Structure formats: C-alpha cells, structure tokens
Amino acid sequence: MRVETAVREVLAGAEGNAAVAVLDLSTGESVRVGVERDFVTASIVKVDILAALLLQASDAGRLLTAQEQRWATVMIENSDNAAASALWDAIGGTEGMAKANLRLGLTETTPGHGAYWGLTQTTAADQLRLLQAVFGEESALSADARAYLRGLMGSVAPDQNWGISAGLDESESVYLKNGWLARSETGLWVVNSIGRVEVDGRTLLLAVLCDGQASQKAGISLVEDLAELTRVAVTDG
User: Fold this and answer.
1) Going by DSSP bridges, is the β-strand pair 174-182/39-40 parallel, antiparallel, or unpaired?
2) Cα four-point dihedral sign 131, 43, 56, 146
3) For burial by CB atoms within 10 Å, which of 163, 177, 194, 214 has the most?
4) What is the CATH number of domain 2-236?
5) CA 113 to CA 183: how far, in whole Å?
6) Ramachandran angles phi, psi of 147, nearest 5°
7) What pLDDT shows up at residue 88?
8) Cβ-Cβ contacts under 8 Å for 109 (sequence gap 6 or more)
9) Closest CA relative to residue 92, chosen from 127, 123, 117
10) Whole-model pTM?
C-alpha cells in the first residue's frame, strides 16, 4: 500500500522510533504502521483525561462545573499541566482512566501511576480508537460531550498549532492535541500529535507518535513529515 511504503521509507532514515495510524472517514480506508510499539503519551493524554471526565459527569447526570470547564479549556487549548493534574485527580487518576478507557474502546493504553499522567503508555492504534470515540458517531461519549471536546481541539493556541496540521492552509480545518516530553533518563524527546484534519473533501483521523528524538525540534519535524506525507498519500491514492 502506498501510504505504508511512504511512511516506512521515512522511518528507515529517522532517529528513534515512530508510528502512524490513519483512518479516512470518507472511504473507511485505514493504514497503521509501527502500531505494535508502545509510546509515552506526554500531553496527548489530556484528550483522554477530558473524555473520562465527560463520561463520569454524564454518569452522574450533571454538567461540568465552571471550574472544570476552565481547567478543560486551558488543558486542551494551552496544554496547561496544572489543569491536567487537577482533572486527573478529579477522574480518580489511574483507576478512573482505566475504567473510562474500557468504555472508550482503548485496549492498548496503560494509565500513568500516581501523579504521572504524562507517562501513560499507548499505541498509535489506540489513539486512533480514542479519536474515533471523539469524532465518530458510535461512541460511549454523548453527542454533546463529543462536540465539547472537538470544540476545544479546534481552538488550540497558535503556539500549539503544529504536528498533524503541517502543510494545511486556512481553508482546511484541523482539530488536534500535541504532546512533547524530554525523558529524564535519556534526555531524548517524545513528540506526539493526534486529531482530525479535513483536506480535499476528505476527513482523516490521524495519530503520529515518536520517541528517541535528539530534540523537541527534531521530533516535531519528524511528526510533521510523517503527517504530511500520510495525508498526501491517502488523499492522492
């Protein structure tokens, strides 16, 4: 398949490890490369945290509080870590996320322990499942919850607008969440980008994860190269 070949060619010359999972909602075509490998989520887990909170609120028959909404906004739009920690505690941390993920269809994600939500382990395939729960019609999340999450992912701060949005013009919509983290043991970087893009009349769900990068800049470059070539290969194919 053209997409898989193109991705593997890029990965062959890259440092570290990377994985790509894409689903074309317009055709149903799905391509997954490197999805057998686990990656640390860094801040892309914030989408999962908010999804868990929205599930719990729905179960309790309530709306998010004003404070929860403030935390959710800065957590997704600005990638605020203090807000993420507050909402991680609100959902019950490791146990709360694990229970939510069962309902969201995530089977390859292990929540971080204690306060370390950013060290949650996942695969690109599971991030694609999370995106399907947010952007698809068949989901444990209500229509209102999905619309709320999508709205925040479509309003990220300008300095957060990179990754799967690379190469898109202003007429092409994007909903995303990025994550980046330097591992303390090695000093090498994890850089991830997940979300939905609409280009050339096609709607794609896309997850690009990488680790072992010499710098954040190098990781962003690899993620953007993979995202752009995947989009082009899918839409031109």
Assistant:
1) unpaired
2) negative
3) 177
4) 3.40.710.10
5) 16
6) -65, -40
7) 98
8) 41, 48, 101, 120, 121, 122, 123, 126, 130
9) 117
10) 0.96
**What does the pLDDT read at residue 1?**
58
Structure tokens at 160: 């957060």
Which ranges of the chain have pLDDT less than 70? 1, 171, 237
State the residue for tokens 């887990």: 45
Question: pLDDT of 155-214, one tens digit each?
Answer: 999 999 999 999 887 767 899 999 999 999 999 999 999 999 998 888 999 999 999 999
Residue with tokens 């992912």: 153
What Å distances lie between residue 225 and 41, 217, 232, CA to CA?
19, 12, 11
Backbone phi and psi for residue 213, each to the nearest 5 degrees, phi listed first: -90, 140
Q: SS3 sequence, 69-117?
A: HHHHHHHHHCCCHHHHHHHHHHCCHHHHHHHHHHHHCCCCCECCCCCCH
Stated as kind and residue range, the H or E segment containing 192 is strand 189-199
Percent of the chain at pLDDT exceeding 70:
98
Rounded Cα distance between 72 and 54, Å, is 10
* Owner of token pair 């997850």: 207
* Cα separation, 50 vs 54, whole angstroms: 6
Do 180 and 32 form a contact (C-beta atoms < 8 A)? no
pLDDT of residue 142: 97
